[in-house]
Amino acid sequence: MNRRDFLRATASVAAVATFARAQSATPAPTKNPGVLKKRDMKKGFMLGTLGGSSAQKLTLLEKFQLLRAAGFDGVEVGSGMNQAEVLAARDQTGLSIPSVVISTHWLKPLSDPNPAAREIGLEGLKQGLRDAKAYGASSVLLVPAVVKKDVPYADAYARSVAEITKALPLAESLGVVIAIENVWNQFLLSPLEAAAYVDAFKSPWVRWHFDAGNIVNTGWPEHWIHTLGARIVKVHIKEFSRKVRDEKGPYAGFRVDLFEGDCDWPKVLAAFDDIGYSGWLIAEQYRPPSFTDDAAWLVHLAQKMDAVIGS
């Protein structure tokens, strides 16, 4: 059996098994929308999205202070930052750092045809794991592969699995999960395939970082949540509007505030209830141009996230 046939067979068998487990293990959706549930979820913020002109003049500590004052519990940082500076800001504000985003996964993806580029991507993943351990983060966010015209799907699959496998001993020794994120990378395009990809590693140190907004362009977040189930370890919250997408282009769909798009937050949160997820919700949300002040924007966003959690 050649490599392509092996990958096809492996993915098919794993997907069928995953589907069967999901159908038998996932409870029926909650059918009591009139009752507002109290959820023990924490609000996080993706630091890389604090890109206002005034924010560019702030120190890292000042950014952390803004987030704490706005009511956030934690902040998601990028890998490769100055560890001492991050730790000082964390300790002085009391913010948690639940997740670290791998900084190399787009420019040097683990699916790159060039072995030297893949080596840089692997070292970037390992650095992110070390950073996460230093900060007390339980997972790193990884885009595992990028499918392009010159990067066939099967090759992206095989290369990314091979490279992530090399990082697993370090992840296990540090106690940090490698969490795969669903993004617009033309890879792992269905929840069944996503589940099968994670399961193929046969390791508790590879799981999923779920992004609700990224799903809406082609599907429904609650469907993915029910299929991925306990594989989900972190969640990104952002909105997406199909109407704006159709009028102004795909990426314009993200340029709406929470509750102004097509994420059905009551159904999304009910799905999290169904699978027993009560962890971090981390904002990666579009900032409307009307919010020119960083502090006002963060307070608004924190309040919107409270509404999401209470949906």
Question: Could you characterize the architecture of this molecule?
Answer:
- The protein is of the alpha/beta class.
- The protein has helices at 3-25, 60-70, 83-93, 115-135, 153-174, 191-200, 212-215, 221-228, 242-248, 265-275, 294-309; strands at residues 42-46, 74-78, 99-101, 139-142, 177-181, 206-211, 232-237, 280-283.
- An eight-stranded parallel barrel has the order 1-2-3-4-5-6-7-8, surrounded by five helices.
Q: What's the CATH C level?
A: Alpha Beta
Percent strand: 5-15%
Number of domains: 1
Enumerate how many helices there are, as a single number. Answer: 11
How is the main sheet built?
A: 8 strands, parallel, barrel
* H and E order: HEHEHEHEHEHEHHEHHEH
Helix content: 40-55%
Distance N terminus to C terminus?
A: 50 Å
- Biggest sheet strand order reads 1-2-3-4-5-6-7-8
- Runs with pLDDT <50, length 5+? 1-36
- The CATH topology turns out to be TIM Barrel
Q: What average pLDDT do the residues reach? A: 90
Indicate the radius of gyration in whole angstroms.
19 Å
CATH superfamily: Divalent-metal-dependent TIM barrel enzymes
Number of strands: 8
Assigned CATH architecture: Alpha-Beta Barrel
Q: By helix and strand content, what is the structural category?
A: alpha/beta
What is the 3D form? globular
